[in-house]
Each structure stands twice: as structure tokens, then as C-alpha cells.
Amino acid sequence: MKGASRARVSARGYTDEHASAGIGARLPALDTWPNQFPGYEITIRFPEYTSVCPKTGLPDYGVISIQYTPDKTCLELKALKIYLLAYRNLGIFYENAVNRMLRDIVAAVKPKRCVVRGEFTPRGGLTTTVEARWPRAASSGRSG
Questions:
Q1: Are residues 110 and 71 in contact, defined by beta-carbon separation less than 8 angstroms?
Q2: Residue 74 falls in the annotated catalytic set
Q3: What gap in Å lies between CA 99 and CA 140, rounded to an integer?
Q4: Which domains are present in the chain?
């Protein structure tokens, strides 16, 4: 079709739609509660992470770790669990999932610092670990 825009497709058949899948999906809200103490870190580990590959539809598994220094609020754990469980049927790449989690957590809790780390189970002999940090490095060119 003349003049119509076409999605970019890689040599392996990955499209722009695959690359951005899940980033804007509606997920359950994260809730917070007022922090009572300054100067400490919280680490949360979710060993049952599951999502779906946006290209193949195959399940992905891993461990998500969230470490943050709270400021005025802390993440409410039940809401966080419901949020993380919502990824179960979501088509999203590992890298996007970890960065999406960081973005959503920072928006909800406004921490002094935060690291989200995803350690994903082997697929085809490869293990993948993705780590996203806030505040973002000045040279990254992207905002959280």
C-alpha cells in the first residue's frame, strides 16, 4: 500500500509490536503506606515471576528482586503481589518487564533509590539477568 507506514521487522521476525508489547498494559495499582523511619533499605524477593514471550507465547519464569530506600512511603506488599501476579499472562520481554516494574514502583513510592533485578530461568542454555536502577544514570538518555 502506497504511503502506508509499515512496522519494522527484524531478520528473525521480531516487530516493533513485539518490542513494545506489555509496556503500556493496564496493571493493578501499587499501594503505599506512610514510612515512619529514615535511612534504611527494603528488599523484596518474588521467586515466582511468570510472564509470556510476546512473540512465541511461551512462558517465561524468573526471580524478581526489588531493593529500595523509602522516603515518605513504603510499598504495600499485598498490592505489590497482585501487581506482580498480573504479569503472568502478559506478553512482555524480560528487559521491558524489569524496566516497567521500576517505572511503576518509582511512580508509586517515590523512593530515594530503587533497583529492580530480574534473574530469569535458562532458555536454550542462556540465563538472563536484567537490572534497572533509579535514579537513572545521567548518560542513559531515558527517564524512569
A1: yes
A2: no
A3: 13
A4: 16-140 (3.30.1130.10)
Per cent of the chain over pLDDT 70 is 88
> Which position among 31, 60, 71, 74 bears the catalytic label?
60
Q: What is the phi/psi pair of residue 66, to 5°?
A: -120, 125
Q: Outline where 1-109 has alpha helix (H).
A: 16-20, 77-85, 94-109
Phi/psi at 35 (5° precision): -75, 140
Query: Cα–Cα–Cα angle for 101, 107, 112, nearest 5°?
Result: 95
Question: Which residue is catalytic, options 53, 71, 74, 114?
Answer: 53
Distance CA 104, CA 144 (A): 9
Told to judge if 71 belongs to the known catalytic residues of this protein, a careful annotator would answer no
In eight-state DSSP terms, residue 112 is S
Interval 113-133: pLDDT, tens: 999 999 999 988 899 999 999
CA distance 35 to 70: 7
